[in-house]
Design a protein that fits this description.
five-stranded antiparallel β-sheet, about 260 residues
């Protein structure tokens, strides 16, 4: 079960980041523009190129005075406030991001005040049937208005020891050059009710929102911690929560849709 201080594979991510830097400087990295093409060529998950800058302190209501005195443009502040209005949980992003960045070298204070967010990215999915010199690509989205409807994908996250956990992506963004994700953890229900017998026989896991001290459990992770997009549906039999939203879900294990994997260059 994931916790706020859970450690993902930081050393592996650092090595991957260095390899990705070398790819960016290569001929293939300079020529490829779209996230799909870049992911297929490099074997690394990529965020969409169409990013918008926003002011990080503007997400923290306690730093209103600091934002008012900052040199950042009003557009960046308004973008952050718009994000906060549609996703109130992002008020926790500055503190969680500061905690996460303790694993990375220090940067100038001005650099720490800006981040860039996108609505989608491409995950190099870990699939057993994919040859070593190929990669399977999956689109991951986190946006409140994809064709006028919210779309927040659920994903599998690789943890230390080879285990996987589940989470919902709430924001895809870039900070200090690192592709990151702001996620809300899901927890596996170890003792599902008797009504879940059929779902268990089909290989479905029962999930619910993980809480910490009675509050939703959010965390910032590196994009490379995600190993695949998970198809998760609400448990339509279980009662809704106090907020009128589903509280229980099921994974839907299915074979990967037949498609031709991309060959690594």
């Amino acid at each position: 079960m994931p916790t706020a201080d859970v450690q993902v594979k930081h050393e592996a991510i650092r090595r991957a980041a260095k390899q990705l830097d070398r790819f960016e400087l290569s001929a293939a990295g300079r020529q490829n523009k779209t996230a799909f093409v870049r992911a297929a060529a490099s074997g690394f998950s990529m965020l969409a190129a169409s990013a918008c800058d926003a002011c990080l302190p503007a997400l923290d209501p306690s730093k209103a005075a600091q934002v008012a005195e900052s040199r950042h443009s009003g557009a960046r502040v308004r973008r952050a406030q718009d994000l906060l209005g549609k996703r109130p949980e992002l008020s926790r992003l500055p503190a969680l991001l500061e905690q996460y960045m303790k694993n990375w070298p220090a940067q100038e204070e001005e650099d720490r005040a800006l981040f860039s967010f996108v609505s989608s990215g491409v995950i190099c999915s870990a699939q057993a049937w994919v040859p070593d010199d190929h990669v399977a690509l999956e689109t991951v989205r986190a946006t409140p208005h994809f064709h006028q409807r919210p779309w927040f994908d659920c994903v599998r996250v690789a943890m230390d020891g080879g285990a996987y956990c589940y989470a919902q992506v709430r924001l895809l963004f870039i900070y200090l050059g690192q592709p990151l994700v702001f996620i809300r953890w899901l927890d596996v229900v170890l003792n599902p009710p008797q009504s879940d017998v059929l779902a268990q026989r089909c290989g479905c896991l029962r999930l619910t929102w993980e809480t910490q001290r009675g509050q939703p459990n959010y965390q910032v992770l590196h994009l490379h911690s995600i190993v695949g997009v998970e198809f998760v549906v609400p448990d339509f039999v279980a009662p809704l929560g106090a907020d009128g939203e589903p509280q229980f879900f099921h994974t839907c294990p299915t074979k990967f849709p037949p498609r031709r994997p991309a060959r690594l260059q």
